[in-house]
From TrEMBL:
Keywords: Membrane, Transmembrane, Transmembrane helix. One of its GO terms (cellular component) is membrane. This is Acyl-CoA desaturase. Residues 73-342 form the Fatty acid desaturase domain. It comes from Luteimonas chenhongjianii. Coiled coil: none annotated. It comes from the Bacteria. One of its GO terms (biological process) is lipid metabolic process. The chain crosses the membrane at residues 57-84, 167-189, 223-244.
Amino acid sequence: MSKLTATRRLSPQELDAFGAELDALRARTMAQVGKVDADYIRNVVRWMRFIGFGGRALLMVGAIGGAFVPWLLWPACILGALMLGLAKILENMEVGHNVIHGQYDFMADPQFNSHTYEWDIVATSDNWRHSHNFRHHTYTNVRGMDDDIGYGLLRIFPEQRWRPFYLLQPFIAVVFALYFQWGVAIQELKLGRWVARKMPKGKMRRDFAPVGRKMGRQLLKDYVLFPALAGPFFLPVLLGNLVANGIRNVWTYVVIFCGHFTADAETFPKESIRNESRGHWYMRQLRGSSNIGGGRLMNLLTGNLSHQIEHHFYPDVPAHRYGALSVEVREICARYGQPYNTGSLPRQFGEVAWRILRHAFPSRPRRSTTSRKLQTA
């Protein structure tokens, strides 16, 4: 049964007022941004580095010490891999993603500059700024314009054309989760166009060059340099780095998919954004996004993308403010009769898993969204 209440259709005047209220909420919040936000992100970075150093140290202790004290090997390496995975999650979700959105540009600190920050995954920040910050956030869930709909691999919505290839998607989805950073890395390369020979000669080579360099640096750091520090006992360190990256990949995949592909999330045709007003834009972000309940720890571990609705409304507002913003956002949505999609992590991910399984097989587009426009009454 749908979690969403029936949506009240708004008159043009109501839709304008809806957008104006949400704009005003952003303006009030941005007027408060300052030292509190700078202190917050600097504290997160300090803890991230501490946890990451501790994880790498434990991997070394387990690898080297385990050769002489066998019972030390597995406990130290398992705890080390978990800590390193946690540090990578914090770097990607709470620091990298939010810094690249420009949330901390007000600090004028080169460490938190959205245009120069390079994060700890094989994908380049430059490509992410285009595929995510621009295309995804501008054209959220617009079919044929938002490349995050299925990432070119999965059929998540019935409005996507079915092909026999999608029968494999339950298996592909698992592999994609395990190697999610690699999928993000190649997303902007448009491999499908290259395979179909629809790309100008030499473009793939030019586009891949910076991605290839970033991949090489990450592989060298995680699977050569740090393991080499353990000398002949390198294997546990190498495996620990592999596990830590896998933990980060799977968690990032789960959070992102729960934020966009739950049962009540919608997609929209290209014509829905013609002459799109501010109110329409907010409405599209609202109906294409989903939140995850879970409290402050969940907020931290997701980079506050547990408040995906608020993030899509205000991508440049420091994300740790989304929890407070969500109270007023939800009240505004209720007052205008608009749905606010939220649920526990197990429930939201269960809906995502069902979508992946269901739409691996042929299915008809929903009548209400076959040619949906976010129309007013």
